[in-house]
Amino acid sequence: MKTLITLISFVMLSSCAMAQNNNISISFEVEGKQQDYKNATAEFIYNNDTLSSKIENGKLTIPATVVKKKATVIFYIDKYVLKFSSIPVTWNDLNPKWAVGVDTPPFDKEKFWTIKSWKKVEIVYYLKNEDGRMFTVDNCRKSKVITK
Hints:
By secondary structure, this protein is α+β, with helices and mostly antiparallel strands. It has helices spanning 2-20, 142-145, and strands at residues 23-30, 33-35, 40-46, 49-54, 59-61, 70-77, 80-88, 97-103, 123-129, 134-140. The strands form two sheets. Strands 1, 2, 5, 8, 9 and 10 form a six-stranded mixed beta sheet that branches. The chain has a four-stranded antiparallel beta sheet with strand order 4-3-6-7, with no helix packed on it. The chain is globular.
């Protein structure tokens, strides 16, 4: 009986700890090179709720209500505003890391193989998960992405 109670307690504590550990590492890239940033925030929009999370020391805390859901995610990183509509908020538990980046011409077309037409594309931005997915937004004017 004592073993059973210990086992149940362990399982409950483990699940609580896992549910609270929504921190992932996040890096920011410009032209494929990692950049330092001064101010960074992410907004998660789900079910008409907007949840903000500050990015500090290369870490982002993802609100538990959007985990494994499709949400709109907007990154405000220094002068950039990068909006990803309706993406699954997931990560690889073994390597919880995202890379957010901005690229301008000339583009690495192998890296951005999901882009169908390169006509009028001025800037591409992306969110890359370590679970193998990359979400890109293309065909944007620079003025929509750069605020200053």
